[in-house]
From TrEMBL:
The N-terminal region contains the highly conserved SGGXDS motif, predicted to be a P-loop motif involved in ATP binding. Its EC number is 6.3.4.19. It comes from Nonomuraea spiralis. It catalyses: cytidine(34) in tRNA(Ile2) + L-lysine + ATP = lysidine(34) in tRNA(Ile2) + AMP + diphosphate + H(+). ATP binds at residues 36-41. NCBIfam families: lysidine_TilS_N. Its main location: cytoplasm. Residues 259-326 form the tRNA(Ile)-lysidine synthase substrate-binding domain. GO terms for molecular function: tRNA(Ile)-lysidine synthase activity. The gene is tilS. This is tRNA(Ile)-lysidine synthase. It is found in: Cytoplasm.
């Protein structure tokens, strides 16, 4: 008798999920798959349903209804019912209201992650799996390059970020599509994924195919590899800056940080700017509002000092240089 194993694509998605959960094996912890019903997340849910019981874990699913399209509630219900048929429990629909701040893509993402975080807390999930693939990573890197906000912006999505895990970052989208086909799963194709009004769709449908045509196949894989190396470098620089911060900080209290300019001058540019960013956030600047332009302006108080005035920062803060120190505090600084 010849023993036939699973389809190669099915084996790949199962192996990716198994490796992503290796540290939780045997604990009985709950792991949730975030599933939209598309090929990537549907393959993720099916792989989790297979892997979890064999790894001594519990598996559930959550699907987010953004209420942005007619019939979205019915589609979300169908995803939840399919999950239950796979043996994923709990299986829940999370209905959200999408705002407008930051544009439609950012607003939908904010609503989605807020709902996922609340569900994970409520259900006491040890991890939430996301179905982003290597193709998604390549798109993220290109978008980061367009923003031009430094090494971190091209490091893409992390395989792990808090409770979130992305098992498929090394797998192409073609693998998840093939896995669904092999498992007789029928993904839902979100019309938004073909809508050129969205920047990411234009990158997916126009830019990446053009790069493949002009530069040869394998661009997505190369971009994802670049993201991985950039993340490793960015993590190392962040660790260096974290260890350097105590040597630079003369005072670190609520709404005020005082740094030693001579100590800052000893640091390489990339590390010093990370220290300045950390100091600004510690003093009260919202991290999401602090841009690379803000940090560079503060950095010039160290590297190009000629008596210039204070630099205004988000959150009502100012940075000013006085007597060999750099003071970041709520305005006005007296």
């Amino acid at each position: 008798m010849v023993l036939v194993g699973p389809h190669p694509a099915v084996a790949d998605v199962r192996r990716a999920v198994r490796e992503a959960l290796a540290d939780l094996g045997g604990t009985g912890a709950l792991v949730l798959a975030a599933c939209s019903g598309g090929a990537d997340s549907l393959a993720l849910a099916a792989a989790l349903a297979f892997v979890a019981p064999r790894a001594g874990l519990r598996a559930g699913l959550v699907t987010v209804d953004h209420q942005l399209q007619p019939g979205s509630a019915e589609r979300a219900r169908q995803v939840a019912e399919l999950a239950a048929s796979m043996g994923l429990a709990p299986s829940e629909v999370l209905t959200v209201t999408v705002g407008t701040e930051g544009g439609p893509e950012a607003a939908a993402r904010e609503a989605r992650y807020t709902a996922l975080a609340e569900a994970a807390d409520r259900l006491q999930a040890a991890a939430v799996l996301l179905g982003h693939t290597r193709d998604d990573q390549a798109e993220t890197v290109l978008l980061g390059l367009a923003r031009g906000s430094g090494l971190r912006s091209i490091s893409g999505m992390a395989p792990r970020a808090g409770r979130y895990r992305r098992p498929f970052l090394d797998l192409p989208r073609a693998t998840t599509v093939a896995a669904c086909r092999a498992m007789s799963l029928h993904p839902w194709d979100d019309p938004h994924n073909d809508d050129p009004r969205y920047t990411r769709v234009r990158v997916r449908k126009r830019i990446l195919p053009m790069l493949d045509e002009e530069l040869g196949p394998g661009v997505a894989e190369a971009l994802a590899r670049t993201a991985r190396m950039a993340r490793e470098d960015a993590d190392a620089l962040d660790q260096w800056a974290e260890s350097a911060f105590p040597n630079c900080a003369l005072s670190d209290i609520a709404e005020s940080v005082i740094l030693s300019v001579p100590e800052l001058e000893k640091l390489p540019d990339a590390v010093r700017r990370r220290v300045l960013r950390r100091a600004a956030i510690a003093a009260g600047t919202p991290s999401g509002a602090l841009s690379a332009t803000h940090v560079l302006a503060v950095d010039r108080l160290v590297t190009q000092w000629h008596g210039q005035k204070a630099v205004d920062l988000p959150g009502g803060l100012s940075a000013v240089r006085r007597y060999g120190t750099l003071i970041l505090a709520i305005s006005p600084i007296v």
